[in-house]
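#lab-general

N.A. 3:47 PM
ok so I finally got the sequence cleaned up, no stray characters, all 162 residues accounted for. can someone with queue access submit it? mine expired

B.Y. 3:52 PM
send it over

N.A. 3:53 PM
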Amino acid sequence: MKKQATLATLSIIFSATAYSTQNERPDIIVIIADDMGYSDISPFGGEIPTPNLQAMAENGVRMSQYYTSPMSAPARAMLLTGNTSQQAGMGGMWWYENTLGKEGYELRLTDRVTTMAERFKDAGYNTLMAGKWHLGFTPGSTPKDRGFRHSFALMGGRRQSL
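B.Y. 4:20 PM
back already:
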């Protein structure tokens, strides 16, 4: 009797494991690195060995087509929203007299766009952001306001985190 109960318990555990494995959503990790070229790391032909990134690339999806900006904050805004930096409100990184008050140069993520974190959070993902944010300090434009449940952000070079 004990043997049958053990077998029944094991079969339930393995069935539950198989069911959860088949229905789990993939883990998604997006890595953004400022001032790095496309082919600087080994998964994309670089000479610098990056074995952990290589393993992630071999077992995941490699993104190879992306429009970017030569400036860090606009590039992050473009990746996180799928829009141009101007559509996202990050047309630049500094206030210039000729851009003050102009749409597209708010220097923060605006309500005109949705971030991938907001979409993932709405889909039930647990979203986390760590590192440099530099996409707005005002209410409505912080990482937690833009879809990240957990944030360990450097808000723009400052030492505090939100």
